[in-house]
Amino acid sequence: MVRLPLQCVLWGCLLTAVYPEPPTACKEKQYLINGQCCSLCQPGQKLVSDCTELTDTECLRCSKGEFLDTWNTERHCHQHKYCDPNLGLRVQREGTSETDTTCTCEEGRHCTSDACESCALHSLCSPGFGAKQIATGVSDTICEPCPVGFFSNVSSAFEKCRPWTSCETKGLIELQAGTNKTDAICDSQHRMRALVMIPIVTGILFAVLLVSVYIRKVVKKSEDKVRGSPSREGVHQSHLEGLLNDRSLGPTSRGSGSVGLGWGSRSCISNEFPR
Asked: Is the pTM of this model over 0.70?
């Protein structure tokens, strides 16, 4: 009974000698190498050589145009990003030894991805639509249709839908209702009445003109008929006047042949125009 515990103790000692316990975990900002903990290189520096029992980790600062943004064991620094103007990019923030260069898009463009490696033009909201969310350097325009009472008559990346003009509040009347693309059209009441009266008055004047022209034609035609056909009484009166003239000439010409001429004339006149 005594031999069993003794054997367990012997086996435990043997296993401990063959398989030693692993060392405890390294602290934060350290790394394990060759059985010992070495310090990590801080941001902006790269690893040159690991630590030893006598020396600490050796690090070197990144060169210009390079960076490392974490505690690391990197042997090489990363190159700063290049903001290519041919892709519509520009530098938003210059890089340092600890941070990368930040690119953004030129005015009127936005990044096509989170990494912002290229740009695209902002979308335009067509007439009848307004900008719900204006585009930024990293996001495109978000458009929405104009609701009833609002309109947009332009293609724009930033114009929102505008409300229709209220004719009533301005003391005007509405000639034409607004749509999602056009504003309401207003006008004054006096102008509206004038617009209604103008064709009416014009029609009345035109009718009066036609009637007056017709009356003038009828009157002129009647006068022409009267002048062309003299009355019977007028003819007799003219001939009687001639007869009287002849008789007045008769007595003043006694003893001459003029008396016979005068009466002869009267007989001719009488024969020509019988009673």
From this structure: no
Is the separation of the CB atoms in 130 and 161 below 8 Å?
Answer: yes
Interatomic CA distance for residues 196 and 234, integer angstroms = 57
What's residue 216's pLDDT?
82
State which residues form the domain around 52: 25-79
Asked whether residue 194 is domain-assigned, the answer is no
What is the per-residue pLDDT across 226-258, written as a single tens digit (0 to 9) for each?
766 555 555 555 555 665 565 555 544 444 444
3-state secondary structure of 190: helix
Q: Is residue 177 within 8 Å of residue 145, measured between CB atoms?
A: no
CA quadruple 49, 52, 54, 57: dihedral positive or negative?
positive
Question: Which candidate, 128, 122, 80, places its Cα nearest to that of 105?
Answer: 122
Lowest mean pLDDT: which of 33-47, 56-70, 195-209, 245-259?
Answer: 245-259
Q: What is the CATH number of the domain that holds 36?
A: 2.10.50.10
Q: How many domains does the chain have?
A: 3
- Identity of the residue numbered 218: V
Is residue 171 domain-resident? yes
Asked if residue 48 is part of any domain, the answer here is yes
